[in-house]
Amino acid sequence: MDAHSLKLLEFPKVLDLLARHCACALGRDAAMALEPSPHAEVVERRLQQTREARHLLEQERGIPLGGIQDIRPHVQRAEREQMLSPGELLDVGLTAASARRLKTELQRKRDACPLLAEYADELPPLQHLDTRIADCIAENAEVRDTASTELASIRGKKKLTHTRLMERLNSLLGSSQYKTAIQDPVITLRDGRYCIPVKAEYRGAFGGILHDASASGATVFIEPGSCVELGNQLRELTVQEEQEVARILRKLTEMVAGAAAELRTLLRILAEIDLASASAHLAVELNACEPQRNTVGRVRLLKARHPLLTGEVVPIDVEVGGDYSVLLITGPNTGGKTVTLKTVGLLAAMLQAGLQIPCSPDSEMSLFSGIYADIGDEQDIQQSLST
User: Fold this and answer.
1) CA 41/CA 365 separation, integer angstroms
2) Which residue ranges of the chain lie beneath pLDDT 50?
3) Beta-carbon-side half-sphere exposure of residue 85 (alpha carbons within 13 Å)
4) How many angstroms separate the CA atoms of 200 and 209, rounded?
């Protein structure tokens, strides 16, 4: 189809409306890339997708597309052996799990939506991936203690060591022996070490290590000598924890990289299903329908409305291609000539993109090998501009 003519007919603005109904970035990208097809079999397949999705929307609350994320960058990074973060892995797992639920739902409704069920059949089985990610990554994007036996052991020891360290520090804070020396009875963290704020003139009262001082110099932050060994143990366990978490994330990233081809197939199919769902929502918004179709150039639009016009819209009836193949419209400025021309061209383009169009279901529209427009001053329907 001629790109300039589609722009003159404001087809990209219809795609904007369509994209707003998409559930995820995958569908939005597919919507913005949609083009009218000159091939009748492609058009009929797209219209069937829209028809089935609209049936599900009006009869069964639509297509469940929640949880699907745009994980294309994550898959690319995994293939480049760049370790994915817990949040990125969670996105991958949620998307794969959502696709699995969607597959089950559409297959269960095969009688009502056979074509969408065919798409669902093609969704690759990735339960091993989303289950493993869910076993390792919690909903808050934190690595679970149970992600590995080693991690559970490290975190158990770390929790115990932290508890013992806090008890010792609190014991010092509550001791009358150090009441005069302590600036504030709180435990603070400095350079990853737990400290007590001490008045500068009493810096030697606790022994241990000075980690920081206040801007005025009146307060120093001391890690008491009796706490240094526990602090060292806690730091060692923290390093071990970080290393084990990194090992788990690398392993999960390798699983994502290994399933890259299947994930790309999954994303492609999800985009198609999301596009079908958005097409159904747009059809309902426009109160649109499927007219009868032919391939002999006959157009008979009844009560047709321009999809970009809002408010009170006067519908039009247009017929051409039967007894005559050229239609000449004349009349005064702002009489609706351009709107009529654009309506016919835009509805033809929408139909061949698989979208239902705002007109009477008794209408008829031909499928064309090309749609061309030459509109003076490139008038914008929404701005009501005229020559």
Assistant:
1) 15
2) 387
3) 7
4) 13
Provide CB contacts within 8 A for 50, sequence distance 6+.
276, 279, 280, 283, 354, 355, 356
Cα-flanking dihedrals φ and ψ of residue 311, to 5°? 80, -150
The pLDDT value given to residue 135: 97
Tell me how far CA of residue 65 lies from CA of 102, 118, 123, 186, 273, in angstroms. Answer: 7, 17, 14, 49, 9
Q: What is the DSSP string of 267-333?
A: HHHHHHHHHHHHHHHHHHHTT-BPPEEESSS-EEEEEE--TT--SS---EEEEESSS-S------ST
Nearest to 23 by CA among 79, 50, 63: 63
pLDDT of the residue at 178 = 87
Q: Are strands 209-213 and 292-294 parallel, antiparallel or unpaired?
A: unpaired
DSSP character at residue 75 = H
Rounded Cα gap, residues 68 and 73, in angstroms: 14
Strands of the sheet with 209-213, listed across from one edge: 188-190, 193-199, 219-223, 209-213
Taken in order of first residue, the domains within the chain and their CATH numbers are 149-239 (1.10.1420)
Classify the C-alpha dihedral 204-205-211-217 as positive or negative.
negative
Give the pLDDT confidence score for residue 207 in this predicted structure. 84
Sheet with 299-304, side-by-side order of all strands: 292-294, 364-366, 299-304, 316-320
DSSP string, 109-173: TTTT-HHHHHHHHHS---HHHHHHHHHHB-TTSPBPGGG-HHHHHHHHHHHHHHHHHHHHHHHHH
Is the distance from CB of 115 to CB of 52 less than 8 angstroms? yes
pLDDT confidence of residue 377: 55
8 Å CB contact between 303 and 357: no
Strand partners, 136: none
Q: What is the pLDDT of residue 381?
A: 54
pTM: 0.85
Buried b (16+ CB within 10 A) or exposed e, 272-290: bbbbbbbbbbbbeebebbb
Question: What pLDDT, in 10s, does the model give residues 211-226?
Answer: 999 999 999 999 999 9
Amino acid identity of residue 88, one-letter, is E
Residue 163 amino acid letter: T
Q: What digits encode the pLDDT tens for the residues 173-192?
A: 999 888 889 999 999 999 89
DSSP letter assigned to residue 66: T
